[in-house]
Amino acid sequence: MGAIFVFAVLFLLPLIYAVTTYNTLVALKNHISEAWSNIDTELKRRYDLIPNLVETVKGYAAHERETLERVIELRNQCAADHGSISHQAGTEQQLVAAVRNLLAVAEAYPDLKANQNFLQLQNELVNTEDRIQAARRFYNGNVRDMRNKCEAFPSSLIASLFNFQPHDFFDVDPAVREVPSVEGLS
Predict the structure, then answer these.
(1) Residue 172 falls within a domain, yes or no?
(2) CATH assignment of the domain containing 77
(3) b/e string for 132-156 if b means 16 or more Cβ within 10 A?
(4) Residue 41 structural domain
(5) Residues 185, 113 contacting (CB under 8 angstroms)
(6) How confident is the model over 118-163, as pLDDT tens digits?
(7) ω into residue 154 within 30 of 0, thus cis?
(8) Minimal CA–CA distance to 71: which of 42, 89, 47, 45?
(9) Could you give the angle at the alpha carbon of 30 between the alpha carbons of 24 and 34, nearest 5°?
(10) Tens digits of residue pLDDT in 160-175
(11) Is residue 148 included in any domain, yes or no?
(12) Which one of 13, 33, 44, 95 is CB 3.0 to 4.6 Å from 74, fit for a cystine?
């Protein structure tokens, strides 16, 4: 009876721990992939909105050509970027800054700020940014959990044995934080 207990303690419990930890790491890796897919979907939605926003602004602020071209250039660069998460975060940060600049340019044109199409596009952009931030939080939470498993002992032994790697966080500020007020625009 004592030999069975010793066998269980020495062999079965570590085996059960190893299998459970491995399965947890696989689940976390899959959650991270799913979460990134959600971010990617919302980024594509943003990329689809930006040309419409630029075209609307172009009708009112054609002489802001450099700003408009920079936004489209960065939008195309981001849409084509399939590099590492940290590289994509860097290009997304540049796009966010360019969109903010575009919206700042729009502030100088009262007729544009009152344009229903512009307001609708800006509202859609705000909603998209909210979804990007929610997906980013979900992704980063899973990355945190994976990092904890890969760095904490003894699960780090299982992670390194099966070559599980921690992922990069995705940190990008939203391009627009709130829907603009239309009070006093008329």
Answers:
(1) no
(2) 1.20.1440.20
(3) bbebbebbbebbebbbebbeeeebe
(4) 11-161
(5) yes
(6) 888 888 988 999 999 999 999 999 999 999 999 999 999 999 999 9
(7) yes
(8) 47
(9) 140
(10) 999 999 999 998 877 6
(11) yes
(12) 95
How many C-beta atoms surround the C-beta of residue 162 within 10 A?
12
The amino acid present at 12, given as its one-letter code, is: L
In a domain, 38, yes or no: yes
**Total domains in the fold of the chain:** 1
Which residue's entry shows tokens 């596009």? Answer: 121
How is the chain split among helix, strand and coil, in percent rounded to 5? 80, 0, 20
Residue 59 falls inside a structural domain: yes
Q: What is the mean pLDDT of residues 31-36?
A: 95
Model confidence at 117, pLDDT cuts 50, 70, 90, reads: confident
Rounded alpha-carbon distances, angstroms, from residue 99 to 57, 102, 127, 175: 11, 5, 15, 6
From residue 186, alpha-carbon distances to 9, 59, 180 in Å are: 78, 18, 14
142 and 133 in contact (C-beta within 8 Å)?
no
Compute how many other C-beta atoms are within 10 angstroms of the C-beta atom of residue 25: 19
pLDDT of residue 118: 86
Is the per-residue pLDDT at 183 higher than 60?
A: no
User: pTM for the full model?
Assistant: 0.80
